[in-house]
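PROTEIN–LIGAND DATA SHEET

This sheet pairs a single protein chain with one bound small molecule, flavin-adenine dinucleotide, given as SMILES. Inputs appear in the order they were entered. The predicted three-dimensional arrangement of chain and ligand is reported afterwards as a token string under its own label.
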Amino acid sequence: MSHTQSLNNYLDAKPTLAEPSYPSNCLEFARHLAESLSSNGHAKNGKTSLKIILVGGGLGGLATAIALKQSGHHVTVYEKAGELSEIGAGIQVPSNSTRILIKLGLEKYLKPFVTEPEAIVIRRWQNGKVIGNTRLIPDFVDSFKAPYYVVHRADFLSALHKKALDEKIEINLGHKVSGYDPMKGDIILEDGTTHSGDLIVAADGIHSIARKCILGEDMVFQESGLAAYRNTVDVKRMRDDPEVSWVLERPSMNVWVGDAGHAMTYTIGSGKTFNFVLAHPDTTDPSTWDQRDNIGDMKSRFAGWDPVVTKIIGMVDSTLKWPLLNGSPLSRWASGKLVILGDAAHPMLPYMSQGAAMAVEDAAALTRALSKMESPAQLEEALGIFEKVRIKRTGQMHQASLLNSQLWHLADGPWQEARDAAMEPEVKGFPFAHSPNQWSDPATQMWCYGYDCEKEIDKEWENSLNK
Ligand SMILES: Cc1cc2nc3c(=O)[nH]c(=O)nc-3n(C[C@H](O)[C@H](O)[C@H](O)COP(=O)(O)OP(=O)(O)OC[C@H]3O[C@@H](n4cnc5c(N)ncnc54)[C@H](O)[C@@H]3O)c2cc1C
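PREDICTION REPORTED AS:
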């Protein structure tokens, strides 16, 4: 027996380590070893190659198209818009998302456009005093093996688009889907033509028509009573003002939190643009909003906040007021040969900065579930497992986002003071076991950013085999 053979035999002698039922990462080393052994010489592609129609060319749809194509499926995308576009604002791409994107080969497409902030700094609304601090560099790369990026949405979408084209995925722009036949696996386009697939994946966004088709009625949206002004500011103007230029000096995300509102800020476009989102209560009907009133409204709503915030507001030329919609967790994401993902399946408040990240996880999880199929007859089982794992994860993220909207928006008083006192250790750099800052709280952090959606699908598949 050669030395290599005996080493392989030794490695193959897998010990039976019982998986704990409590949240623990003590077996992470074993999972990494098992993964690298199984990928050594074995194709990761699914055993069953499907003809998949993907509806929606947003962040979720394109990430899913790339993951499915790389797994050996034939993928065709239908997007209603004549060209792919995103609103002119920034987006956070947290480590649980970048880990998947990097695995899909997107690093070289994204890298020229991203900023990697050093930290997320929480500040008091009135004077900018630091009350919370989550160190991203080096902590997140060390702990979660992936960077935390911020990027302009248009650059993110264009990176996915370029990668999809390099993967030779057919993308049909200007094709609106007007109906579905889930049992047959058909989509009906607005021009009346029908296209069939073994599977239809609908990533058609928050106002999804596929969702209605699966549920028989639309999701109930909960009143969030919240809206956001989404702005970008030219950094040249900020650099010229010493009172605000420090915000640009070291790339960090700064979020000012106060009674019923917050201001989230970071630079995008490799430091050329400043992204500035102001969340505030608004119970009026969005159909009555006149976008021309925004600048004046924004100024009066944030009057009295830290002069840094009000000065930057003064530099905004135009702003977009956006309703913050809060869906409700669904009991089903699939019916027949139709499945939904991304915002179509889990619209949530953006307060964990995880909506698109959940869609990227959906992409990897769906691909993994389909890779388990030995034959097309197992589609229902694979979709059932995908749906079960993802409904749990995204439902929990939905809750975490809601909790952040309460934690950040406390009015001044004893609850706010106790919250701020509980964050003091992280600000002072002392060790801590818990924090009301969910980005820092060790247990929440591990659950949020250390989550491995493929492993969860594997576990659920094993469970279903043992039933
Ligand atoms: C203020 C704000 C801040 C946010 N910040 C973050 C953040 O920092 N990090 C993060 O991860 N997430 C964030 N999110 C959430 C994130 O933007 C969304 O979760 C994500 O963009 C959803 O992607 P999607 O592909 O599922 O849907 P969409 O982006 O809505 O894409 C749906 C696509 O489907 C197409 N489509 C729709 N209907 C049809 C049809 N009938 N036929 C053909 N095509 C169709 C649409 O044209 C569109 O291109 C934020 C959201 C908001 C509002």
